[in-house]
Amino acid sequence: MASENQNKRPFPHNNNNPTTRASPTCPSSIKKCIGDEKMVGTANNGRFRQAFSVVNGGQDLGPNSAPASNAGSECGGIEFTREDVEALLNEKPKRKDRFNLKERCDNMVEYIKRLKLCVKWFQELEGSYLLEQEKLQNTLDSAEQKCNEIEVLMQNKEEELNSIIMELRRNYTSLQEKFTKEESDKLAAMDCLAREKEARLNIERSQASLSEELARAQRDLLSANQKISSLNDMYKRLQEYNTSLQQYNGKLHTDLSTVEDELKRIEKDKATMVENLSMLRGQLTMSRASQDEAIKQKDALVNEAACLRAELYQVRDDRDRLQSQAQALTTDMVKYKESSEKYSAELDILTTRTSELEATCSSQNNQLKRLHTQLATAEEKLQLSDSSALETRTEYEGQKKLINELQTRLADAEFKLVEGEMLRKKLHNTILELKGNIRVFCRVRPLLPDDGISTEGKVFTYPTSTEILGRGIDVGQNGQKHSFTFDQVFMPDATQDDVFVEISQLVQSALDGYKVCIFAYGQTGSGKTYTMMGRPGNPEQKGLIPRSLEQIFQTRQALKAQGWRYEMQVSMLEIYNETIRDLLSTNRSSSTDNGVAGKQYAIKHDGNGNTHVSDLTILDVRSAKEVSFLLDQAEQSRSVGKTQMNEQSSRSHFVFTLRIFGINESTEQQVQGVLNLIDLAGSERLSKSGSTGDRLKETQAINKSLSSLSDVIFALAKKEDHIPFRNSKLTYLLQPCLGGDSKTLMFVNISPDPSSVGESLCSLRFAARVNACEIGIPRRQTNNNVRPSDSRLSYG
């Protein structure tokens, strides 16, 4: 019995009909097409299947949403519904004429073609779903990364807001204390006013009693009137004072309300930030749920493909059954030949027809074999694609593990490289300490807008060889290259923190009981003051002096657990025109104005290698904030001036000294350390600076002292018997640092301006000579017995 669907084409609906057309990425369920959001089941061996819905957000795509991967394929414009697949699988061959094998074979060929087209459509659908899954995974990864960045930003913002709130609360507490103090002063003034009123009443009563004896007591009355007038004046002043106190009280109330409003606003901003963070976390949860839904739909597609494979096996069984039926027909034909012997006339016709049928059957059998071979090839390709996908995933996992392993090895190698570099620097510093050499660091400042541009290329280059990497610098002048090597070379992009990291261990030596001296040398405008002091108001650009103080006080706090107690003293001076000036003196301005000679300071060295400056102000300090305040005070008192080379040129040598006395309460060990941080005035040529008048005298004094410093360095390099330390106040003050037992480091600051290459070359040559000087092995100052009677420590 022929099926009703035998002559119907089971799969192509009209693509122009929007009610029946579906996207290749959105196949229909068993009982409906794309666009229906229901879950429909069918009684197919007891299985229930879910409708194919779009992975992207759980909504169906429109008719034009097919992916580009299906364009131009064999089934690019064909969609299948569940009814189409069932009709294709349940279709039975037409049996009008059981002997018409040719028609049956044509039907079978058409049927197999439709099966192949259906299988290919499902393969393309599975590929599109895999691409969509990868896109969703990438989107989810980017969303998670963005959410993590927002969380970090929110945490930083929250910490900043908390710090602002704490600062406002502290201000609020201080204002309350001031208000309480003003109230107590007001009450005291009121009591005083009441007493004055009572005294006035007493005087008035005395006046009434003395009025009866007016003639006899005129002199007494005159004196009483004078007292009354003075009391009235005092009463008026007290009233005015009371009024001012009331106004001040009102102002304090206004400031208090303003601070409270600001605190409420900040708390409201904090709440808003927390709400935004929770909203972003919700979006992340939704993204993860969407990914889980996509994974579930992928599993459903895999199950659907398995069902289709089972149905293909069933079709192959049907084909075998048809072959057996063909064999049965051949047997019937033989029987008919035996029975047709009676009809000789019809025998020839039947024989001819039988031969034709046998030839047709043979050709159909060959065609069936070819189709069977093609089907087997398609199945093998499907298996190969599955195994290839599995191998690709396995290879991806292996590559991922290999990448993680390589990243771990790279991190270990970088860590070992950092450790090796630290060990090299430590050993290098130890060698220099044993040799007693002065260490030299070179720093090249960045180019400024006012600097010129060299026509011969770069003025400074930095060698990249392993032996001198980070320690060498080459200078090009007139086609010649001059090479220098120092303990460290900082390129223009080096930050203040990078520079301080290299000297932090040297600063630590001061707490260990050593004499430490760090001074900056270079021409005007090369960045010496910036290196030592930094830029005020910018924490990231703090100089070596503020950073050194922070490290020392932090380390002092950490060493309390080990029983160490430290006392520290600070002094600051400048050498201006060969004259010492105390920058912390309270009467400094009055003693130096109008060229009047101030206090005379004398430099003295004792037998232990310590230096003292007579009458120099030395202050005890307990925190880094105290020292920062003193640094600001000294910076305002320092002599600066404007030249053609620098807007604010230092016109004096600045010397900062921190004296450290430490005692270990458990071991009774005592140490005495000194930290000298010196910002030298810049050398300059009169032809370039354009100095006149007082600036000319300052330039001459600066160049003279730096020339004396050069003479001392030459004498030390040649190991002469006489070192001319007394030729200037600067060299005499630095005598313990240059010729004693201290740890000394010099910063040579270089300007990249091509017009200053001559001065830069001179500075580098001088630094090379300094680096070759041997001043002796540093000696630690300890005392295990008793503390010296003089509580003030030595200068150097």
From TrEMBL:
Question: What PROSITE patterns does the record point to?
Answer: KINESIN_MOTOR_1 (PS00411), KINESIN_MOTOR_2 (PS50067)
Q: Where is this region: Disordered?
A: 1-27
Task: Tell me the GO BP annotations in alphabetical order.
Answer: microtubule-based movement
Sequence positions that bind ATP: 522-529
Coiled coil segments of this chain: 133-416
> What are the protein's UniProt keywords?
ATP-binding, Coiled coil, Microtubule, Motor protein, Nucleotide-binding
Do the record's keywords include Protease? no
Q: SMART domains this protein is in?
A: KISc
Query: What are this entry's molecular-function GO terms?
Result: ATP binding; microtubule binding; microtubule motor activity
Question: According to its record, what are the GO cellular component terms?
Answer: microtubule
InterPro entries on file: Kinesin-like_fam, Kinesin_motor_CS, Kinesin_motor_dom, Kinesin_motor_dom_sf, P-loop_NTPase
Output the Gene3D superfamilies linked to this UniProt entry.
Answer: Kinesin motor domain (3.40.850.10)
Q: Which family does it belong to?
A: Belongs to the TRAFAC class myosin-kinesin ATPase superfamily. Kinesin family. KIN-14 subfamily.
What is the recorded name of this protein?
Kinesin-like protein
- Organism this protein belongs to: Castanea mollissima
